[in-house]
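Structure ticket #2291
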Amino acid sequence: MEAKNPYLSAARLTKSTLIRYLFTIVGGVSTAFWTFGLILCFTDSGMRDSWWVAVILLVPSVWMLWKGIRTGKDLELARRYQGVFTASRDGSVTLDDLVRHTGKSGAAIDTELERLFRKGYFQGCTLLKQPLAVTLTGTRKSGEHYRDVVCPHCGGTSRLRTGAGGRCEYCGSAIDEE
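Resolution: structure written out below.
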């Protein structure tokens, strides 16, 4: 059984897709409406004193539009990183792998991954900070086989893909499945 998105949370994808479309459409329409209203306030002498109402109502409209666009960008980023994760053969994705696949700086990758993990886009993987890496711990849906491995350095237990090495979730040391 091979899942289409083994490292993406289906619930989070659904929620983000709904937010993306709803906020983009409602925010876009209301932003256009209140922008037209603001222009009308300055062109019609009888409405000049009402410009502040249009501005106050324009602010949440622009926020909704921005939120919809931002959520769409997060969805695209999560799918792109998921593609990098599934290409990993050893169950661990290092910063060098991420830089090579995305063409972004380490700082940008760190910021993006931290935000996406915090928002719950990923499942079956763990973000390690020092050194920056993603350890693929697997899910039942992924169709991959994983084992619990005890780190010889700190004694922490991490899940690794069967037949592969990775990094300890606790201390970041390189560990093998042995």
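Closing remark: The mean pLDDT is 86.
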